[in-house]
Amino acid sequence: MGRRPTTIIAGALALLTVPAFAAETVDVFSTSGCGCCIGWMKHLEEAGFEVSNENLAMADLYAKKTGAGLKPGQTSCHTGFVGGYVVEGHVPAAEVKRLLAEKPDAIGLAVPDMPAGSPGMGTSDEPYEVLLVARDGTSTVFARYPK
């Protein structure tokens, strides 16, 4: 006996209610009391990510960065890990989602320093780049802001 058309339609409609982006957890490492780090984590949560945070001493935080393969000039104030990638600095949530969807062969994304206008850093039209960091430590532009 075959399925009734209404059962098939109901099953298809149920699939439409599944979110297109399943919540991923971003494990963030920062130093205690950094307001812009807290702002970035709120930005990720508002975009649907779950966020865990561990505060480290500066030397331990730097060890996390270098251990992930980041080079001088690619770092910022906090370091996140999600889906096997490092996410360094004030990377917009949209680019983290794109990284997880495209799955490039790289260590992750970085927004070096702390550019004004990046998530967690307030409002500004100051341009900045999101870098895709390759396994050999080189980087290419993944996105430019403002768009």
Overview of the structural elements:
The chain is an alpha/beta fold and 147 residues long. The protein has a single domain (24-145), classed as Glutaredoxin (3-Layer(aba) Sandwich), CATH 3.40.30. The protein contains 4 helices and 7 strands. The chain has a 7-stranded mixed β-sheet with strand order 2-1-3-4-5-6-7, sandwiched between helices. Strand 3 (79-82) and strand 4 form a beta hairpin. The radius of gyration is 18 Å and the shape is globular. Residues 1-20 have low confidence and may be disordered. Residues 1-22 form the signal peptide. It comes from Aureimonas phyllosphaerae. This is Metal-binding protein.
Describe the structure concisely for a colleague.
The chain has 147 residues and is α/β, with parallel strands linked by helices. 30% of the residues lie in helices and 26% in strands.
Average pLDDT: 89
Biggest β-sheet, characterized? Answer: 7 strands, mixed
From the coordinates shown, what is the CATH architecture? 3-Layer(aba) Sandwich
Q: Determine the strand fraction and express it as a percent band.
A: 25-35%
Ends apart, CA distance between termini: 55 Å
Number of domains: 1
- Uncertain segments are 1-20
SSE map:
Elements: H1 5-16, E1 25-30, H2 35-46, E2 50-55, H3 58-67, E3 79-82, E4 85-89, H4 93-102, E5 108-111, E6 128-133, E7 139-145
Parallel strand pairs: 1-2, 4-5
Antiparallel strand pairs: 1-3, 3-4, 5-6, 6-7
Which terms summarize this structure?
147 residues, alpha/beta, Glutaredoxin, 7-stranded mixed beta sheet, 4 helices, 7 strands, 26% strand
